[in-house]
Amino acid sequence: MIELETEVQKRRTFAIISHPDAGKTTLTEKLLLFGGAIRLAGSVKSRKAQKHAVSDWMEIEKQRGISVTSSVLQFDYNGYKVNILDTPGHQDFSEDTYRTLMAADSAVMLIDAAKGVEDQTKKLFQVCKQRGIPVFTFVNKLDRYGRNPFDLMEELEKVLGIRAYPMNWPIGIDGNYSGIYIRNQAQVELFEQAGVHGQSALPSSVGGVDDPRFKEALGEEIYHALCDDITLLDMAGDEFNIEKVGKGELTPMFFGSAMTNFGVRLFLEEFLQLAPPPVPRVSSVGVVNPSDENFSAFVFKIQANMNPAHRDRLAFIRICSGKFSRGMSVFHPHTGKSIKLAQPQQFLAQERTIIEEAYPGDIIGLFDPGVFGIGDTLCQEGSEFRFQDFPIFPPEQFARVQAKDTMKRKQFVKGMTQLTQEGAVQIFRQPDYAVESFVVGVVGSLQFEVLEYRLKHEYGVDIVMNRLPYTLARWLMCENCEDIDLKLKSMKNMDNGMLVQDVKDRPVALISNEWQLRWVEERNPGIEFLVVPQDA
Ligand code: GDP
Prior knowledge:
The chain is an alpha+beta fold. Helix content is 29%, strand content 29%. It has a 7-stranded mixed β-sheet with strand order 2-3-1-4-5-11-6, sandwiched between helices. Bound molecules: guanosine-5'-diphosphate. The site of guanosine-5'-diphosphate has 16 residues, from helix 2.
């Protein structure tokens, strides 16, 4: 019991959310280096380089007979066990990216100092917000021109609706920075000076930013600008409040540079102290605490093997309570069966290892004979409960899909149904459409390619796919309608949209863009347009 509690308290499981090119790969690599998990810088990079194009990726999957994409990187640091969840971005941005956040206890939001909050970050942040998990902000690329830090704070508040507490502050004027001031240590850290190796740290002798030593080191102008900024932050800024951080209402904000390794260690150490250990999870029988001795976990990602000769899949589970040991049997409530977990895998940087034991917060990959679905619960034999269902993540791309050969109808429907259950795509039906077809919704276009590939190789069905010109799905609600079907049939201004039903027969409108959506909303008072279904 004490051992379990100790292991739980050591763990920090988080995901890095960012827009492509903000520096996630570089930051991850630096974090791993601190943990001694990789010997050579560049290892994470090479993993990324392997994922150039979809075709390459599938080729690699084929050659290796197993997925090359790892899902979690674990390392030790200062007595902590750190689990960094990999959030696929770039061309493989998909529902998996969102789902990964379901397995995280906190998130690190990485922002390019010159670009601020970008599109993909916004989407990922919304998922963190819905879950109410703490978000820590790292503003990257401080070594080169960056925006005014007050502007960035304001942008976080305006665009994301979260207030920021700067833990450190860039030193310099007009986006030209020479280092950071660490507020809680009253310490100045300067970038490497020309010809001098390493970074120089200068603690205050008087315990505040107005230390004459800083004036000497920084020069009059920069020193005064820094003092003004810090005074303003102290007086007008938010107070640091760990409870607000815990609820995702306040984000501790760090400035640094992953590439030049500036401010990264400081960030890591503060983050590990402030970020929560594995948190309790809600289930059908109430809250499940991580230190509960009964084992429980849920599946948050399924990775199909692209090699037709090896149909097995990997199911990634996040442990929520109890201790996992290799070979243990667990109960799978969705099938009502016991399953022996014989070959659990864990990922340390690039290496896969068979693991003997694991604790709450840890992620393991299991060979899946095809029984697991996204969101499934695994629990101790003898108990039976389910964790809350995963939310629906709003799809952004749509296509009509049908079998090329109508004789293959049965396999087509079977394949579509199974792949939907597995969470590879979302499907919708158009009630009056004559031909057997589905409207498929995805978050990223890689999902379309995977769908096509898997239907062909696993179900022997070639498909015809026609992209549809929509980017938004809205679940329709009508509180006071006597006959919702009638009301929906007579919806105005839907000529450029499409009415469909989701797998639970709930009405959904597919609409081309935000502008069109506003137009339709205005013309149809009484109908609510929800980003996700209310009962989801
Ligand atoms: P990802 O797409 O978010 O994984 O971003 P990468 O880690 O691949 O970084 C994108 C680009 O930004 C690369 O060229 C990096 O070398 C560069 N980069 C990352 N961190 C920094 C930084 O702190 N300063 C500067 N100047 N460039 C950086």
